[in-house]
């Protein structure tokens, strides 16, 4: 094993600024394109080509008036080679190892001329994909952001003479954002490159949102973090994992191509794993945000056009998959279980015809590992939670959870679902996960992104507004949940999700769900156990441990109850499109049953509810995302909470 060393001067005072801007013009593809163009597969499975792929790659190790870097040029050359071999890019390479060609040295005028030329080419339709990669110092003076070239003087009276004005670059990109999609990968440290200030004295870069609007930005660090270059890697940590993703490890769906969405998720989770394996290091967590609705587009091919195996034990990746559910119409019917006069009752509702737009839903319940990883990022980025979550039931059958386990680091049970989170925590966490990965958060309160679930009276969380057309993560609606649980309405509502027979068939339920043997005896008015029933052994289990339903979705029945978006209310009496529940109420809908309750709760049409501020060790949630291309038109009044 190679021993990892960290040199004190390699805790990058301003290690590297990786700036990648990719632009894609939505122009028709013709058969006359060159064979050198990159072939990709679109969402309909049809082959098409991307042409005119230009990359400007810049690396600066040596500075005359700032601390020199160790691996910036090595990083740049590595990215150059990957973009050429895997992405079929034409690469213009500017670095201080190009002394044989003054025209390729990384000077301000040379680089700005190249960027302006690429912007002009994009306007004229000649460049469909444009990448800029910058590895070197970056810093902020008087609220302005700069990229340092070898002769940059960080004195604020001299800075404009030799440094690249990052804000000017952003403005140039604004000129092509309507025609092109622009993406920014930014790895910037916070410190003055002269090294005069200590690490703790500098605040994070804060790119103006108006300048970046229309551009997706992925920064290599969160506020308070610093970038690292590692002697053991021979590269910066961020660049190393970025390159691994571009080479194919980010190809999470196995289609042979690396998309931008796949890449940014891979970089976050692989870096999270890296620093988790090196607890002696402070963490370095990338952050991202975006404002446009980007469809899939492809940056590079996987090596040999085949799927590259996922990174070893990548945190959360195994259980972060989403399943697309194509839209359709079904009858949403079932039973509601409710309390009345200390009796547990149920009533059947013959429901309504419900047309559902296509959407994505989590293949698995949110695991504690994924919850914890996002939670740690969120609390460093302005988010607050009423509850910090717990790893499954933990207690192994006790009547109450062990609250000492709430918020602890993941253990060997990390792939059990997160519990002890209420509805409000769940929607705030969805916003954090969206923002972290560069998607547009779904939930807003009073015109601002909802970031706090500590809402004692519910004014903010419970009255939240929803952008149903956002590309961010959210809770499924009750209709979406049942539509997915019944495999688009193709199995009866009284079956456990994925079961071959109704809920009274123990063996059919056992194949698809973890459930308990507790039931409420209305005669004695007490909870009792039936020793002949149940398979959960009084605890939660790893997600994905039972057979999936017909859509390939796991644990929609059993393990933990799952929060849905809707306020509980009576079903409407007529047909509806994308019905999102009552406009107000006291209880939010729960679906699916849990490890604690009996098999009656496993039915795909079984409705339950609870207060939005309630948490327990058998309550969790599952993610959903809207699919943009076939959503029903927005109402004239804009978005609302129903």
Structure explained in plain terms:
The protein is of the alpha+beta class and 642 residues long. The model is unreliable at 1-50, 190-205, 291-295, 304-317 and 630-642 (pLDDT under 50). Helix 1 (72-87) runs parallel beside helix 6 (237-249). It is built from eleven helices and 34 strands. It has two domains: 8-231 and 283-292, Rossmann fold (3-Layer(aba) Sandwich), CATH 3.40.50; 317-637, paralog of FGE (formylglycine-generating enzyme). The strands form eleven sheets. Strands 30-19-18-32-31-29-33 form a seven-stranded mixed sheet. It has a four-stranded mixed sheet with strand order 1-10-11-15. A four-stranded antiparallel sheet has the order 17-20-34-26. The relative contact order is 0.10.
